Amino acid sequence: MEIKKDFSLKYLNTFRIDATARFFVEFKNDYEVIDFAKNRTLKNERRLILNGGSNILFKSNFDGLVIKISMQGIEKTGEDKNHVLIKAGAGISWDKLVEYCIGHNYSGLENLSAIPGNAGAAPIQNIGAYGVEQKDCFYSLEAVHIETGIIKIFNAAECNFGYRESIFKKQVKDEYIILSVTYQLFKTPVFRIDYGAIKAELKKQNLKNVTIKAVSKAICNIRSSKLPNPDEIGSAGSFFKNPMVDQKKYLELKNKFPEIVAYPNDLGKYKIAAGWLIDQMGWKGYRRGDSGVCKTQALVLINYGSAKGEEIYSLATDIQQSVLKHFGLQLEPEVNIIQ
After folding, report:
1. Whole-prediction pTM
2. What is the CATH number of the domain that holds 245?
């Protein structure tokens, strides 16, 4: 285990913010993590656990220890008549995990295709897209408690999943290092294609029968048409969460703004499309120096080259204030803001 000092994080976050960590260490296997925890190396330092860096904004340099998670590997750990359990190392690319499942005809994660980041970050953020969240297939995860070195297995209930939320974002933030994640997938495909433009995109493929590979391809096409490629331009995907309101508030908004875009959920609430709100305020395509708003998806803030984290954060704050003033809705960042 090598601890580096004043380490650049520019290529470890998809915003490509040129921040540095005072201390930096990378773990490539479980044993290194356990050894680190038991020896309590740099135990008094502020710490940040970094996976794929796809959901993070550094406002400044990080005065503490950044822990990079790079454990690899995918394996089948169990199955029954209808399901299979697939275990992935926390450091493996999320899309590589999805591609593995599709290649073996295991259904459940195909709607989450082309999401940047690593598998270990998926349960932290409870990533979701096109009517599916990772919690829908989540089975368990293994994590090391940093202060004790003890490995704990978390089931879905213990993770306390919510809309882009989990216990790892609040109650036990930075207390555990996730080693691996296990998903329970279907052997016989269960399709979720009623959300957004999936059906229309599938129709373009002229299929006789829908397959999980076709659904994945449709999702990838939709995402690539709307979202910038993080390998080409700095971004963190959707910057804000979609506000959730009760029926009374939704009807008030609908009466005042008849064209408002919203989606009902199973709890009797409505998810208001944050991208629509931002677009209505004229932010789509806006640019301020090297920080800006994507031209095709107003939910996405971008770094055109050399924007500082503080500049992107300032833009995000201005967007929040304009939406609050006009619609009376508070946009909450989906991205983790690191001060």
Report:
1. 0.88
2. 3.90.78.10
